[in-house]
Design a protein that fits this description.
Elements lengths: L1 H58 L6 H30 L6 H8 L19 H16 L1
């Protein structure tokens, strides 16, 4: 009986040690992943800062290599387009009412008038007797239903 107890105690001790090792390994893996994510975030922030600084330096007239100059020229064009879009949007907000009135909504719901004089008309070729007969039969069948 004493041997059985010793074996059980040893098995429990080894199981506890294995659980501790697994938990330690999991903690180390998690710590490494968190460290990697933090470093990636810092890298991304520094690259963003570098890009912003390079753009400011370029706008101040400091010559940069051709590839960077082309990229930053494109960024400047995009900045101009963004500025124009924002200005147009701001102007539209001040000129137009935010909520359309009932009269505007009613006018929008009315169909547009069509001038028959300006609508092109293409004459259809005359139908043969067979086509007229088939069409009449189809109409009779539809009426019967």
């Amino acid at each position: 009986m004493a041997d059985f107890t010793t074996v059980v105690k040893g098995a429990v001790a080894k199981s506890i040690e294995a659980i501790g090792n697994a938990a330690n390994s999991l903690a180390n893996t998690t710590k490494n992943k968190v460290d990697e994510m933090n470093l990636n975030e810092r890298r991304r922030e520094k690259l963003a800062e570098f890009t912003a600084l390079a753009y400011e330096v370029w706008k101040n007239g400091v010559p940069l290599p051709k590839e960077l100059d082309e990229m930053l020229t494109e960024v400047a064009v995009i900045d101009g387009q963004l500025g124009q879009l924002r200005a147009d949007r701001a102007a539209a907000k001040t000129e137009e009412p935010a909520v359309p009135t009932i009269q505007v909504a009613q006018e929008a719901a009315q169909p547009a008038a069509v001038n028959d004089d300006t609508v092109p008309v293409t004459p259809l070729p005359p139908m043969s007797e067979d086509e007229v007969t088939i069409e009449a039969q189809e109409e009779e069948a539809n009426d019967a239903e």
